[in-house]
């Protein structure tokens, strides 16, 4: 299922829940809200979703949490937890650098989120990367030699290029 379809299904299920609530069918309304929640949370965790679209979906998801009886603070905390659980990682860079917080990893993540995710081809590249890179990263992580080679030959140059592109891009 494409993320757009999941988003639309989430909206449909929210509408269904409102109708069921209005007719006094609370149990069925709760089930519809749970389905809406699942669909919308899948969108939040999808790497193919752009930043603007993700923000729109998160607003709707906060409404779902509110309808489920969570207060605003609980809703925001739950959404933040979902973001952390579903955040896509820079698998190979993290394996080569040894930390998700390495400067090169942070730059590459920013480039992915601010540049690649804005365009269909970039989102496709990110999706493909997320599909094939975890086993490669696991292999790289096991060898000190490979970590060093990948970091020097791939990660450092890619991060340097990404940094240049980020700096030259107009801020929106």
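^ structure tokens above, recovered residues below v
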């Amino acid at each position: 299922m494409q993320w757009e379809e999941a988003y639309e299904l989430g909206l449909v299920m929210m509408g269904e829940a409102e109708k069921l609530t209005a007719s006094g069918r609370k149990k069925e309304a709760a089930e519809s809200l749970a389905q809406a929640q699942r669909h919308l949370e899948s969108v939040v965790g999808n790497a193919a979703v752009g930043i603007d679209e993700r923000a729109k979906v998160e607003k709707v998801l906060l409404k779902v949490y509110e309808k489920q009886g969570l207060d605003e603070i609980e809703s925001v905390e739950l959404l933040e937890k979902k973001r952390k659980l579903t955040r896509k990682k820079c698998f190979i860079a993290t394996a080569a650098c040894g930390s998700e917080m390495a400067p090169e990893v942070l730059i590459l993540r920013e480039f992915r989120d601010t540049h690649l995710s804005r365009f269909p081809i970039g989102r496709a590249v990110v999706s493909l990367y997320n599909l094939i890179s975890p086993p490669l990263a696991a292999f790289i992580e096991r060898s000190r030699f490979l970590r060093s080679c990948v970091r020097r030959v791939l990660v450092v140059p890619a991060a340097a290029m990404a940094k240049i592109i980020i700096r030259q891009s107009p801020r929106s």
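Residues 91-168 form one domain.
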